[in-house]
Design a protein that fits this description.
The chain is mainly β and about 220 residues long. It is built from no helices and 18 strands. A hairpin with a 6-residue loop joins strand 12 and strand 13.
């Protein structure tokens, strides 16, 4: 993972007590345009231990596409795959310690809570091979995704040093991520300009416009 210098906005507190609040992150590209759907998370440093989030991430299949295209969850929590189509999907991830494969019939769901390691999980469908999506697994409960304005606000309670990491599967840099250290609560807001190119999201559409049989 590479380290970069960013422009930060700092707010200072006179108290040394732990202060719960939100850390606000804004992401823009080299033209100062907002970067939406970027995964942002805070990795605690200096031996700090944070609890496992009990939040379940919902990964839908709708109109023969993954929705949303990018999901994020903490290692140790659960993902719920929900087929909202009227056809069967065969969801899979082919490589690594987190590989899996299962069918989900129309209107049904499949819960998965046995992911083995953090990192990128690329997903597809064996029946509809144009379908693609990503699940990014982090080892911290402090995570989120930027909105259409490139902004995300993440609640932090414990004072200390954190590694702020930004990830996107199509960010054209090693490990698809950039990072910097921040100190909470001395720093509560940061604007990051990411100069690296962003590849386009895969278009989840059958190029041949071929309709599968209703059983699939």
């Amino acid at each position: 993972m590479r380290f970069f210098c960013f422009t930060s906005l700092f707010f200072f507190f006179s108290s040394c007590h732990v202060m719960a609040g939100n850390f606000k992150v804004t992401l823009v590209d080299s033209n100062n345009d907002p970067l939406p759907d970027m995964v942002v998370y805070f990795q605690p440093l200096d031996g700090m231990v944070l609890p496992v989030s009990n939040k379940t991430v919902e990964i839908g299949q709708l109109d023969r596409a993954f929705t949303p295209y990018i999901n994020v969850m903490q290692l140790g929590s659960s993902a719920n795959f929900q087929n909202k189509d009227d056809i069967t999907h065969h969801i899979y991830s082919p490589v690594g310690e987190n590989k899996f494969s299962f069918k989900i019939r129309a209107g049904q769901s499949q819960r998965k809570d046995d992911f083995q390691q953090s990192g990128e999980v690329a997903m597809g469908c064996n029946i509809h091979d144009w379908m693609s999506g990503y699940l990014y697994i982090v080892d911290t409960p402090l995570f989120g995704k930027t909105d259409a304005q490139g902004r995300v606000s993440i609640a932090i309670e414990q004072q200390g040093k954190y590694q702020l990491v930004v990830w996107h599967p199509h960010l054209e840099i090693e490990n698809h991520s950039v990072s910097q250290q921040v100190q909470w609560p001395e720093s509560t807001q940061v604007m990051i300009k990411i100069p690296h190119k962003m590849g386009k999201n895969s278009e989840q559409k059958n190029e041949e416009d071929f309709d599968f049989l209703s059983d699939y």
